[in-house]
Design goal:
38% of the residues lie in helices and 15% in strands. The protein is α+β, with helices and mostly antiparallel strands and 227 residues long. The protein has two domains: 85 residues, no CATH class; 119 residues, no CATH class. It has a three-stranded antiparallel beta sheet. Strands 6-5-10 form a three-stranded antiparallel beta sheet, covered by helices on one side. Helix 4 packs across helix 5 and helix 5 runs antiparallel to helix 6. The protein is globular. It starts with a strand and ends with a helix. The structure holds zinc ion (ZN). The site of zinc ion has 8 residues, from loops. Zinc ion (ZN) binds next to loops.
Length: 227
């Protein structure tokens, strides 16, 4: 993975500067695809879609912030633009931070609300992205309410979202509804995920699971053992 230029943006609330990282080149090796649809790609990190300004403390969609330029990785560019260089990087928000962003009104359209709620669900599930996670799915009343709302919002939606809906139903232990939802998934691209969810549902398994992994090629492993 090679870092790219940093995008410099201004906070839509207070105009404070912030940096957004980018990568010049990445690859999908090492990706883990999880049953909730989240893909963890260590060699292809993405910049946060929602962040909180470190100056005024307000949350915003990074796509709605104004871009003012790029800070190039070349030596010398940082010296020419010390204010840009000093700006903090935008940090991704955790489950609680995203829930706060939702209550501050960032889910102001159905589309944004859906994206924000999926992000809340994924960040809550991060606690279970390891083999020995004791429970394997969210249990807090806030997280369950979020899944309930996602299930409601993804009723009769596109097939990729029906897979998300089925997974949320599985986490809540509603296996019959999960099966019914998966009847709406026909696209052959989704068959492996669909059959795995059906299998887990039959076993009354509610845990977040790994669906696939993309192994690093052996020669790259040898060259770059730490990734
Ligand atoms: Zn601000």
């Amino acid at each position: 993975m090679i870092s790219g230029a940093d995008l410099i943006i201004t906070c839509p609330h207070c105009e404070a500067l912030a940096k957004v990282f980018s990568i010049a080149s990445g690859n999908p090796f090492g990706t883990i695809g999880w049953s909730d649809g989240y893909r963890d790609s260590p060699m292809m990190p993405t910049a946060p879609r929602i962040a909180r300004c470190q100056s005024c403390g307000k949350a915003f969609w990074t796509g709605q912030a104004q871009s003012i330029g790029y800070l190039l990785p070349e030596q010398g560019d940082a010296q020419r633009k010390p204010e840009w260089q000093a700006a903090p990087y935008l940090e991704p928000l955790d489950e609680a931070g995203l829930m706060n962003a939702l209550s501050e009104g960032l889910g102001c359209s159905a589309e944004l609300e859906l994206e924000l709620r999926v992000a809340i669900w994924w960040r809550g599930n991060d606690a279970f992205r390891r083999e020995d996670a004791p429970v394997g799915h969210a249990t807090s009343p806030e997280a369950c309410a979020n899944m309930e709302r996602l299930i409601e919002m993804m009723h009769e939606s596109d097939e990729d979202l029906l897979l998300f809906r089925a997974e949320a139903l599985r986490h809540l232990g509603r296996f019959d509804e999960m099966e019914e939802t998966l009847r709406g998934v026909y696209c052959s691209d989704y068959w492996p995920a669909k059959s795995r969810l059906l299998e887990l549902g039959k076993a009354e398994d509610r845990k977040l699971r790994v669906l696939f992994t993309m192994e690093l090629p052996e020669e790259e492993n040898a060259l770059n053992p730490q990734g």
